[in-house]
Amino acid sequence: MKYPTIIDSQQLFREQDHPLKAGLDPKCRSTKPLCPDSFAKVMKSIDTFIFDADGVLWLGESVMPGSPRLIDYLVKHNKQIIVLTNNATKSRAVYAKKLAKLGYNSAKMNKNNLVNPAAVVADTLHRSGLDGKRVYLIGEQGLRDEMDELGIEYFGHGPEKNKNEEEGSGAFMYDIKKEKSDFGRNLHSSTVFVSKYENPGGMCE
């Protein structure tokens, strides 16, 4: 069986002092810190590098020291770069601007290198064939921006006006014609949002 290569970019993954090595396969525990020569050999066997965003490329609003230089090095050697984050509060375009502001190569690190849940959901809806139907959206600005870019019509976003909340059993009667509903993180989520979502034709992506 061929074991994957483990890259120790900080040269701290030593068998004698790294607690995480205890539970690894023996062949993985035998890995040694990288040096310029061994790194060059490893580079030849890798086409794509996937990076998390917050905590790897940046921390809050500050760049992680040395990260832009590493990205430039990988780009120079024709490696594909993908930035993968689970944060859907912002669109890929917003994250691309942040990368440029922090000093990353904007020509090679743009929104096409970024993947987040907002982009995935919008792309899935776009490919599903909405045929003019609107989407009832519970999500943040990042999801709305991605859906706007693909021309997906939606409603239900933003703070909910709850004026009929105390009108009795008919308070949540809502005439909506939709085929799909999308759930995401929403600061304005409430029982009103969820009650309006209840629709036999709705489908949660």
TrEMBL record:
Gene3D superfamilies, alphabetized: HAD superfamily/HAD-like
A GO cellular-component term linked to this record: cytoplasm
Recorded superkingdom: Eukaryota
GO terms of molecular function: phosphatase activity
Name this protein carries in UniProt: 4-nitrophenylphosphatase
Organism of origin: Caenorhabditis tropicalis
